[in-house]
Specification:
The complex is a heterodimer of chains A (421) and B (449).
Chain A: E1 2-9, H1 13-25, E2 31-34, H2 47-51, H3 67-71, E3 74-76, E4 81-85, E5 90-93, E6 98-106, E7 110-112, H4 131-143, E8 146-150, H5 154-165, E9 169-174, H6 186-198, E10 202-205, E11 209-215, E12 218-223, E13 228-231, E14 233-236, E15 240-242, E16 258-259, E17 272-274, E18 279-282, E19 289-290, H7 295-310, E20 324-329, E21 332-338, E22 350-356, E23 361-368, E24 371-378, H8 384-392, H9 401-406, H10 408-419
Parallel strand pairs in A: 1-2, 1-6, 2-3, 6-17, 8-9, 8-14, 9-10, 16-18
Antiparallel strand pairs in A: 4-5, 5-6, 7-15, 11-12, 12-13, 18-19, 20-21, 21-24, 22-23, 23-24
Chain B: E1 6-10, H1 20-30, E2 41-45, E3 48-52, H2 61-65, E4 71-73, E5 80-82, H3 92-96, E6 102-105, E7 110-113, H4 122-126, E8 132-136, H5 139-146, H6 162-174, E9 178-181, H7 186-192, E10 205-206, H8 213-226, E11 232-238, H9 239-244, H10 247-256, E12 260-266, H11 306-312, E13 317-322, H12 326-339, E14 344-350, H13 354-357, H14 364-373, E15 380-383, E16 388-391, H15 402-405, H16 416-436, H17 439-448
Parallel strand pairs in B: 9-10, 9-11, 11-12, 12-14, 13-14
Antiparallel strand pairs in B: 1-8, 2-3, 4-5, 6-7, 13-15, 15-16
Helix pairs in contact in B: 6-12, 8-10
Classes of the chains: A alpha/beta (421), B alpha/beta (449).
The structure holds flavin-adenine dinucleotide (FAD) and iron/sulfur cluster (2 copies).
Chain lengths: 421, 449
C-alpha cells in the first residue's frame, strides 16, 4: 500500500494546474501524480501538430523533465487507476497496486465519444485523443490516399487539414447543418467551410451516417441522403465524453461527468475533487452544470481544486464555464468566446457585426443589457482574451456602449488596462 | 533589499498618444517602424488612453494555458519568454491573457510579446513624456516607505488598529504642508493632539468639536488663502463625528464647496467611548447599545450610506477605500489632493476595529480583504468632472457575505435570516451603485435633488 497526502489522477492541464496551486501553499506535503500513459505530461491540444509533423512527439511535453523533482513531487507514469474506494480513501491501479490518499483529485480528462452506428464496431477506425492515437494516425496517413472524417468539430477539422496537407483526399461528414457548431454561427461557419472547400476538402453537412462496413482495406459509409462514401482511412471525431468508467461503484456522483460544486468538490463523497474535461461544473450563463472541455476550463478548474485541497484562503469560487476557443486553419485565425454564435434574430440580445466575405473577415459582438456576453471573429484584430475578461468580469458597458461598438479593440484594451493592479 | 522582478508601469495621465513607444518597439524587434511589429500598443477610446502590453505576470495565464510548453517565466529576470521552436501557433495564449500582452502579428504570422529588449526596453527610453517607467514591482511600496511618516512612534492605539494605519499612510502621501483636524474619536484619543509640543503628529494638528470639524477646517483654509499660502486641509473624522454628530457641518461645507480632504475613518461605531452604535454600524452588529439577548439581536437598522450621500452633495471627489487595497487607496489620495484644490474631497475608509468588533489583530487585513471580496465594501470613486461612479476593484464573483461575517465576533450571533438580510442588502447596494455608474442617472439625480 502506497500513501500520498495529495493524490492527483491525470497529468495534463487540470492535474498540473492543481499541482502548482498546492505547491504554492504547501512546499513540503506529499504529492503524487498518477498518469495512465507512459509518457511525460502533454496536452491533447498539441496532437494535430504531432499528426502534421510540425512538432515531434518527444518534444511536446507540458513541463520540463526536472520540474517534478525540483518541486518534490512523485510522478508515476503508466499508472492507470481502475477503481476508487472513497470510503477507505484509496484507489487501485491496473497493476493491482493500491494508493491511500487524504485528498484525491480526479483529472482524467475525456475520451472520444463513439456514436452508435451500425457496423462501426466491426471496422478499423482512428480517434485522436492520446499521443499514441496521434502516432497511429500519422503512420496510417502515410499509407492512405482517401480519408473520411466523421464530425466537423475542432478535432475533425484540424485533422482534415493535416491529412490534406499530407497529400490525402479528404471528406468530412457532419450531421448538423454547419461545421464547428459549438463555436460559430452559420455565417462564420460558412466562411470557414469555404476555406476548406477552396483547398479541395469536401464537406458534407446535414448528413447522418447510417451504416459502416469494411471490405479489404476500405471502409464504406452509407449516408442518410442515400449517398455512399468510401475511403482507406476513417477518423471518428464526433465529440468527447468524460472518462469516468473507473468510478463505478465508488459513490462519486456522475451524470455526464463528475458533478462538482464551485470549489470543484465532487458530489456524493468526501475528500474527492474533480477538474477539467472529466468534471461537470456550473455554466456561466445559467445554473445547469455542464462539461466544458477546453484548456482554459481545465486550467482554471484545476487551480481552484488545488487551492481548495490545500486550504488556500485566496480561493475565489468558480464563476462558471463558457465556450471559449481559438482556431487556426490554412493561415486564417478565428476565435469564439461565450455566446458568440447567438443569431441576430434572438430576443434579449443585441448583435454588432462586421462581415466582409471578400476579405475573409467576420466579427461579431453580442450584448445583453449593458453587458458583453459573446464575441467571435475570423481574421480580426480583436483580442480574444480581453473580450473573454469583459464577459466573465461582467464589466458594465452601458455607458461606453457607443464607443465600444465603434472601437471594440481600443475600448477593450483601455478597460483592461485600467483594471491592471 | 531583496531583488524583485521588473515591470513596465504606465501612467495614462501623462500619455498623449504620440506612438513613439510603438515605433521604437517595432524598430527594435523588426527594424521597421510599422506598428504591426510592435509588442506595445497604446490606444485611445472614450477619451482615455490604455496600454496593451505584457505585464510579465506573477501568475501568467498565458504560461499556464499554453499546450506546447512554449512560454515560460524566466526565474532570473521574471520575463515571460516565448520559444518559437516549441510554439504551434494555436493562439490559446491570446485567449488566456487578459491584457492583450501577447498578440498575433499578421506579417510574421506568429504570436509576439514583450521581451524587455534584453533588459533595457526601447519603449521606455522613447517615451518623451515619462508615461512609461521601468520599475521593480516592489519599488512602488518602497517609494511609500521612503515618504516621511508624520505620526510619532508610540501613540496609544490598540494592537492592530486600522485607523492608525490610515492616519500614517494618509499623512505620508499628503505630506507636511497640511493642517490636520482630528475631532473627538479614536484618532484624537490615541494622542495625535496635545499641548506644548506634545502632539503625536509632526504637522499642525488641532482638535475641533465633534460638531464643527468641517466648519473649522473651512475657516482655517480661508485664512490660509487670504495670506496667500496653499495648504492642504485634512480631517480624520470617525464615523460618529462624520455621519452623526458632525454631519450638519460636513454637509454645509460640502454644499459650499469648501476646499479640503475629509477622511471618514469608519470603524462602524463609537469605539473609544466603549463601542456604542453609530449610524454607520451595520445591521445585525453587536455593540454595547445594540446588545444581543433573547429579544434584541444586534442592530436592527441598516447603516447610513454615507459615501453616496456625499456624491449627492456634488463633491469634487468621493471614494471608498480599504487598507487591504493600499495601492488603490494611494491612487485615490492623489486624486483627492488634487480635487481639494477645487472643492471637497471625501474618502470613506473602511476601518475594521479588532477591539470593538472582536477579532484577532492579526486578522485585520484579512477582514478588510473579505469585506471587499463579498461586496460588503465595494471600492469605487466618483469624480465630479467625470460625472459618475466607477468601480476601482470590481468583484467578479462576490463571496457569500457569511465568509466575511464569520471572521468577526460582533456578528457571531447572527441567525440565517439575518445573514440573508445582509446578503440581500449587499446586493441591493451594488445594484444602486451600478445605477450611478451611468452618467445619465447621476446627473438626473443631481438635477432632481
Ligand atoms: C486533438 C485535440 C485538439 C484540441 N484542441 C483544443 C483547442 O484548440 N483549444 C482548447 O481549449 N482545447 C482543445 N482540446 C481540448 C483540451 O485538450 C482538453 O480540454 C484538455 O486537455 C483537458 O485537460 P484535462 O487535464 O482535463 O484532461 P486531459 O488532457 O484529457 O488529460 C487527462 C489525463 O488523465 C490521464 N488519465 C486518464 N484516465 C486515467 C486513469 N484511469 N488513471 C490515471 N490517469 C488517467 C491521462 O493519461 C492524462 O494524463 C483539444 C483536444 C484534442 C484531443
Ligand atoms: S502575455 Fe499576458 S498573461 Fe502572459 S505574462 Fe504577459 S500579461 Fe501576463
Ligand atoms: S500560440 Fe504558441 S505560445 Fe501561444 S499558446 Fe499556442 S503554442 Fe503557446
Amino acid at each position: 500500500m502506497f500513501h500520498s497526502k495529495y493524490l492527483i489522477v491525470g497529468a495534463s492541464h487540470a492535474g498540473l494546474s492543481a499541482l502548482d496551486a498546492i505547491r504554492l501553499i504547501e512546499p513540503e506535503g506529499e504529492v503524487t501524480l498518477l498518469c495512465a500513459e507512459s509518457t511525460p505530461p502533454y496536452s491533447p491540444t498539441i496532437l494535430p501538430y504531432v499528426v502534421s509533423g510540425e512538432v515531434r512527439a518527444e518534444e511536446v511535453f507540458l513541463r520540463r523533465s526536472d520540474r517534478f523533482e525540483r518541486m518534490g513531487v512523485r510522478f508515476e507514469a503508466g499508472a492507470r487507476v481502475v477503481s476508487v474506494q472513497a470510503g477507505d480513501h484509496s484507489v487501485e491501479l491496473e497493476s493491482g497496486e493500491k494508493w491511500e490518499y487524504e485528498k484525491l483529485l480526479l483529472a482524467t480528462g475525456a475520451a472520444p465519444s463513439i456514436p452508435r452506428i451500425e457496423g462501426l464496431e466491426g471496422v478499423s477506425y482512428h480517434v485522436l485523443r492520446t499521443l499514441e492515437d496521434a502516432e497511429k494516425l500519422r503512420a496510417a496517413m502515410s499509407a492512405a490516399k482517401e480519408a473520411i472524417v466523421l464530425g466537423a468539430g475542432l478535432i475533425g477539422m484540424h485533422a482534415a487539414e493535416n491529412m490534406l496537407k499530407a497529400g490525402l483526399k479528404v471528406r468530412v461528414v457532419e450531421a448538423l447543418d454547419q461545421v464547428l457548431p459549438a463555436y460559430f454561427d452559420p455565417r462564420g461557419a460558412d466562411l470557414i467551410e469555404r476555406a476548406f472547400l477552396e483547398q479541395g476538402i469536401e464537406i458534407l453537412t446535414g448528413e447522418r451516417v447510417e451504416g459502416v462496413a469494411q471490405s479489404g482495406g476500405r471502409v464504406e459509409l452509407s449516408l442518410s441522403s442515400g449517398k455512399t462514401l468510401s475511403g482507406d482511412l476513417l477518423l471518428v471525431s464526433t465529440g468527447v465524453k468524460p472518462r469516468t468508467e473507473y468510478l463505478k461503484g465508488s459513490g462519486v456522483e456522475v451524470e455526464e461527468g463528475v458533478v462538482v460544486d464551485d470549489r470543484m468538490r465532487a458530489g456524493g463523497v468526501e475528500d474527492v475533487w474533480a477538474a477539467g474535461d472529466v468534471a461537470q461544473a456550473r455554466g456561466f450563463f445559467g445554473d445547469s452544470k455542464r462539461v466544458n472541455a477546453t484548456v482554459l476550463s481545465a486550467v482554471e478548474q484545476g487551480r481552484i481544486a488545488g487551492m481548495d485541497m490545500v486550504g488556500d484562503s485566496a480561493l475565489q469560487p468558480y464563476g462558471g464555464g463558457m465556450a471559449v476557443n481559438t482556431y487556426t486553419f490554412f493561415k486564417h485565425r478565428a476565435f469564439s468566446v461565450g455566446m458568440g454564435k447567438v443569431s441576430e434574430s434572438e430576443d434579449d440580445f443585441e448583435v454588432d457585426q462586421v462581415y466582409l466575405p471578400s476579405s475573409f473577415c467576420y466579427q461579431k459582438l453580442v450584448f445583453s443589457g449593458g453587458y458583453l456576453v459573446g464575441a467571435s471573429g475570423i481574421n480580426t484584430e480583436l483580442d480574444p482574451g480581453v473580450l473573454y475578461q469583459l464577459i466573465r468580469r461582467k464589466v458594465n458597458l452601458e455607458e461606453e456602449k457607443g464607443v465600444f461598438s465603434a472601437k471594440p479593440l481600443e475600448m477593450g484594451r483601455v478597460l483592461m488596462s485600467q483594471v491592471w493592479r | 533589499m531583496g531583488k524583485g522582478y521588473k515591470t513596465i508601469a504606465f501612467y495614462p495621465q501623462r500619455c498623449d498618444g504620440c506612438q513613439k513607444c510603438v515605433e521604437a518597439c517595432s524598430e527594435f524587434h523588426a527594424g521597421s517602424t510599422d506598428p504591426v511589429h510592435s509588442r506595445i500598443k497604446v490606444v485611445e477610446a472614450g477619451g482615455a488612453f490604455g496600454l496593451a502590453l505584457c505585464r510579465q505576470c506573477g501568475e501568467p495565464q498565458c504560461v499556464m494555458n499554453c499546450p506546447a510548453g512554449a512560454l515560460e517565466k524566466d526565474t532570473e529576470t521574471g520575463v515571460i519568454k516565448w520559444d518559437r521552436d516549441r510554439c504551434v501557433n494555436c493562439h490559446i495564449c491570446t485567449l488566456a491573457c487578459p491584457y492583450a500582452g501577447i498578440t498575433y502579428n499578421v506579417v510574421s504570422e506568429e504570436v509576439m510579446k514583450c521581451d524587455f529588449c534584453e533588459g533595457d526596453p526601447a519603449c521606455v527610453k522613447a517615451c518623451p513624456l515619462g508615461a512609461l517607467e521601468l520599475k521593480r514591482g516592489a519599488e512602488i511600496f518602497n517609494e511609500w516607505a521612503e515618504l516621511e511618516d508624520l505620526v510619532v512612534p508610540g501613540i496609544s492605539a490598540c494592537l492592530g488598529c486600522n485607523s492608525e494605519l490610515v492616519l500614517r499612510h494618509t499623512l505620508r502621501r499628503v505630506g507636511s504642508n497640511v493642517v490636520v483636524a482630528t475631532p473627538p474619536g479614536c484618532m484624537a484619543g490615541v494622542g495625535t493632539v496635545g499641548v506644548n509640543g506634545k502632539t503625536g503628529v509632526k504637522a499642525p494638528v488641532f482638535h475641533p468639536l465633534l460638531t464643527n470639524t468641517a466648519a473649522m477646517l473651512a475657516g482655517a483654509k480661508r485664512y490660509y488663502k487670504r495670506i496667500g499660502r496653499d495648504v492642504t486641509m485634512i480631517a480624520f473624522g470617525g464615523d460618529g463625528g462624520t455621519a452623526d454628530v458632525g454631519f450638519q457641518s460636513l454637509s454645509g461645507a460640502a454644499e459650499r464647496g469648501e476646499q479640503m480632504i475629509y477622511i471618514c475613518v469608519d470603524n462602524e461605531g463609537y469605539m473609544n467611548t466603549g463601542v456604542q452604535r453609530s449610524s454607520t454600524t451595520p445591521y445585525g452588529a453587536w455593540t454595547s447599545t445594540t446588545p444581543v439577548g433573547t429579544v434584541l439581536r444586534g442592530k436592527s437598522r441598516d447603516a447610513k450610506p454615507m459615501p453616496l450621500l456625499m456624491v449627492m452633495h456634488n463633491c469634487e471627489y468621493v471614494a471608498t477605500a480599504s487598507t487591504a487595497f493600499m495601492e488603490d487607496y494611494y491612487r485615490k489620495l492623489e486624486k483627492a489632493i488634487e480635487a481639494a484644490r477645487r472643492g471637497m474631497a471625501y474618502i470613506h475608509v473602511f476601518s475594521p476595529c479588532p477591539t470593538g468588533w472582536r477579532f484577532p489583530p492579526s486578522k485585520l487585513i484579512e477582514v478588510g480583504r473579505k469585506a471587499v471580496q463579498t461586496n460588503i465594501v465595494p471600492l469605487w470613486e466618483y469624480e465630479n468632472r467625470v460625472g459618475r461612479i466607477r468601480f476601482t476593484h470590481p468583484v467578479e464573483n462576490p463571496l457569500p457575505v457569511a465568509e466575511y461575517l464569520s471572521l468577526i465576533g460582533k456578528f457571531r450571533h447572527l441567525d440565517e435570516e439575518q445573514i440573508a438580510h445582509i446578503q440581500a442588502q449587499t446586493q441591493r447596494k451594488i445594484e444602486v451603485l451600478k445605477k450611478f455608474t451611468s452618467e445619465q442617472t447621476t446627473t438626473t439625480l443631481h438635477h432632481a435633488a
